[in-house]
Amino acid sequence: MSSAPAGVAGALRRANRWGVLEILLWILAVAAWFFLPEQHLILAEIVNFAILALSLDLILGYAGIVSLGQSAMYGVGAYAAGLFSAHVTGEPLSGLLVGGLAGAAVAFLTGFLLLRGADLTRLMVTLGVAAVFMEIANQADWLTGGADGLQGVETAPLFGLFEFDIFGRTAYAYSLGVLFVLIVVARIVLASPFGYSLRAIRDNPLRASAVGIPVNPRLIAIYTLGGAYAGIAGALFTQTQMFVSLDALSFQKSADGLMILTIGGTGYLYGGVVGALVYKLIQDVLSNLTPQYWQFWIGLLLVAFVLIGRERPRALVRAVSIRLARLFAGKAASRRVAEEKP
């Protein structure tokens, strides 16, 4: 009887191991701080998008909860961090915690509405929740600044040593560190029995309920965690930009998260990271080439992703890799035969 739990624990530990590509990705991200000093601002923005996409992937890719309302948690987290900075203290880590708690609170309080419908209903409910919070922020201009944005946001030096400047050096390093911590936490959660129960709920909620998995509490729990991640992303945006406006609560912010996941893929942690990198770089390049029509090309790219899919490029890369491996193996065998001849 004891061998079965030990086997499960071993499988969970193996699933939580870091791969070579993951390590290489983080090495490149750190190296970018040293070798791309002029791109720190855009890199910090990419990391912010990645955290937003990660928050959506937790609920969509692993639990199957479709949502168009991540901007509600993102915006509330952004305003909470901004108000905390303007009226309490600009210390960044405590402001980040406030933003995460605010996003989690919004997700927890509104998450019960998601249990009362299917995918289409959930889409409309999450969209409506985001619209409600945006209108509240717009009307409460005495608190949020309304359409003019929240004023007086100041971010203190990180750990009292590293100031946030206009070049984004501290902002990128700070954002990258936050993303690393969030991915580590997400890996631990998703590689646990709780994480695997979410996959079972995503694949077949009725079957998951039949085998004893508490479906609704698990959905609320992961939705709250996703809201905390979105709130942290919003707080991070406020702290690095030292400004927050109604755009943080707009539908465009939720749409950005969905587009990033469409590019990067759902159901694995680095889909949001890869998608944010591709999306932001393409947006930056196209906005310089065609400032008026860059959204057209982004839309065309998304259509191509939907029509072509990801399996064909992956199959092509796999086939090329196999062909190259066989080619090099054949050359090595021919060389050995030639060396063995007298």
TrEMBL record:
Q: Where is the chain membrane-spanning? A: 18-36, 42-65, 96-115, 171-198, 218-237, 258-279, 291-308
Location (main, coarse):
membrane
Which cell locations does it reside in?
Cell membrane
Q: Which InterPro entries match?
A: ABC_transp_permease (IPR001851), LivM-like (IPR043428)
Where does the UniProt annotation place the signal sequence?
none
Q: Name one GO molecular function term.
A: branched-chain amino acid transmembrane transporter activity
Its membrane topology is listed as:
Multi-pass membrane protein
Alphabetical keyword list: Cell membrane, Membrane, Transmembrane, Transmembrane helix
Q: Give me the Gene Ontology terms describing cellular component.
A: plasma membrane
Protein's name in the database: Branched-chain amino acid transport system permease protein
Record organism:
Shinella fusca
Source species taxonomy: Bacteria, Pseudomonadati, Pseudomonadota, Alphaproteobacteria, Hyphomicrobiales
